[in-house]
Structures are given as C-alpha cells and as structure tokens.
From TrEMBL:
Compartments in which it is found: Mitochondrion inner membrane
Similarity comment text for this entry: Belongs to the mitochondrial carrier (TC 2.A.29) family.
Start-end of each Solcar repeat: 98-178, 185-275
Annotated GO MF terms: NAD transmembrane transporter activity
Residues covered by region (Disordered): 1-40
Gene symbol of the encoding locus: SLC25A53
Protein name (Swiss-Prot/TrEMBL): Solute carrier family 25 member 53 isoform X1
Keywords: Membrane, Mitochondrion, Mitochondrion inner membrane, Repeat, Transmembrane, Transmembrane helix, Transport
UniProt key word Cell cycle: no
Amino acid sequence: MMSRLARPISGARGRPPRAASCSGPLLAKRSSRPAGAAAHRRGSRCGVKCSSDSQTLPIGILPFFHLHPGIFSMGEQNHSPGKELQHWTQKEAPGKRSWHSHAYALGAISNFMSTFLTFPIYKVVFRQQIHAVAVSEALRQLWHEGPQYFYRGIYPPLLSKTLQGTLLFGTYDSMLCCLSPVGPHSLGNRWAAGLMSGVVEAVALSPFERVQNVLQDGRKQARFPSTISILKEFHSYGLWGRLSQGYYRGFWPILLRNSLGSALYFSFKDPIQNSLAEQGLPHWVPALVSGSVNGTITCLVLYPLIVLVANMQSHIGWQSMPSLWASIQDVWDTRGRKVFLIYRGGSLVILRSSVTWGLTTAIHDFLQRRYHSRKEPKD
C-alpha cells in the first residue's frame, strides 16, 4: 500500500497531475530535494502561480479559488462588530437562502429582556404623555396607586415587544437578504429593509399597543380592570368597529412612526457601530452606544407621533372617538399650542430610549456573535 502511494503522480501512462500535487507532500518522501522545489518544477508545467508562496498551482484548483474566495482571505477580514453581519451574509452562496430563522429568535430574546428591565421608565413616560405632568407628579400618581399596580399592564408590552423584536430584526434580515443577497449593504438597502420591517411591525402589533395604552391610563382602572374587560368591550362592536374603533385605533400614526423609526434605526446603526469599533473598544461598547444614540435620536424626531398615538388609543367607547384631525387639534390645544409642551416628558424619553435600544442592540449583538461563533466551526 505504501509503495503504491509513493509512486509519482505523473506516471508513464501520461495521467495528468492531480489537484493535490501543489504542495507535493507525498513526492517529498521519495525525493531528496525539498518539497517546495519539487512542487515548483511540477507546477511550471501548469503555468499558474500560487499566490500564497509564489509556487505554481494546477489548473484544476482554480475553480475552488473562485467559488470560495473568503476561505483564503480570512487573515485580511475586518472583524469590526458592525461589519461582521455583512461578512457572514457574504459567506452565504448567492441565492442559497433569502431568510435566516435565527434572526427572528435573537430579536425576540433581546427585546424581551430589554422590555422587562425598562418597563418602570416606560410607565412614567406614558403618564406624562397622557396627563402632561412633570416627572415628580407621574411618580406620585404611581406611588399613590400602590405597588400592586406598578407593573399593571406589563404583559401586553412584554408580549408585543417580544413579537416586535421577532418581526423587526427577522423581517429586516430577510428583506436585506432579498435586496442584497451577498452584500455590500448600501444605505438604500438598509433604509428599504428597515422601512418594510416597520410596516410589518405596525400591522402586527397595533392591537397590543391599543390594549396596553388603555390599561396604563389611570382613568380607566375602574371601568376596565383587566385585559379581558377591554377585549369584551371591543367585541361588543361590529366587525368594522372592532378594527377601526377597537384594535386598530390610531393605526395611521403608528404606521408612519414605526416605518420611519425602523428605517432610521437600521440605516445608521451599523455605520455608528463600525466607527466606534475602529477605536479598539470592547465588542459590547460600540453596540450599546450605537443603539442608544440611534434610539434616542429616532424617538425624539418622532416624539409628536408617539404623543398622538398615546392620546388616540387612550379613548374608548363610540361616544369619545375623535377623528385623526380632531385628535391632532386636541393634542395641540391641550399643550397650549407650544412645541416644548408637546415634548413634555422628553427627558425620560431620552433615558428610556437610550437604555432600551442600547440594551436591545447590545444583547442582540452578543447573541449574534455567540450564534455565529458556534456555527462557524461546524461549517
């Protein structure tokens, strides 16, 4: 057996040299000359240069270099956190998959954790949006109601935010793969994918936000003590009333807010993260800062829509359902026709957005790294 393996690959019968003969480890066993010299002499008959050590390379190996260029450039890859998702996407063969199931799971986990940790801040902000009061007054209201009501209404946002993360990150990843299967992902690709993910999110999550806003309004506690009581009220309407006046009350402002917010978030998340990663910071710092900055700016730009949605969805019952334009006029009048009063609660919005989106982005980035670090050795 060993004698047959040690025979020269190019024999007297004129068989062509095999692709594995570039390095020539077997021929080196029976030749006193260095393996590199033998490989150079054999490769000269092929006329192809080997890029790694200037040795020649058989023609049969060329298709492998063209089909798998990433394998031979691992030492030159940019390992900045923000560019790794694009690198992982580029490693997929074109047309192999248009969606990744793990993106939905990672989005769900990251949003679940960040929502649970930041719900107290969210509830204080909601009270400010509804009653136009200061932070101290909102805290006083919650303290007066008692600790048993402090986490009242957490289940709808916990469920909705978990579903939001599933749809937001999962749909964005799927849309991005459809628009740019192998990269690079341009600003237009990220904007379009974020916009479409926001539309899907708005359609799926408006009912959850509607129930949540009714539950968190302190004026509705006696009439609607639980989620079941709200659902019974909605189901007392007709079919169209359940949609327009019930579950999808305030849908158009939600659609505009979610689509623009998702587009802004995904458009600038990676550029900010890449810039910070070049400074040599720990992996979690660029993701945390990028999510915080993006979430804060996006929320402040769209804050008037957030206030409008909260006020529209707090109304319930046929007799107290103003139209979209009437709701806009009501918010403008009750805020004294002043922009800075519309931004009442903006300080806590900055804090909530910074913490929520910073945690969400950092957790998502961490889980994504763990997933791909476990997957790459198997591949």
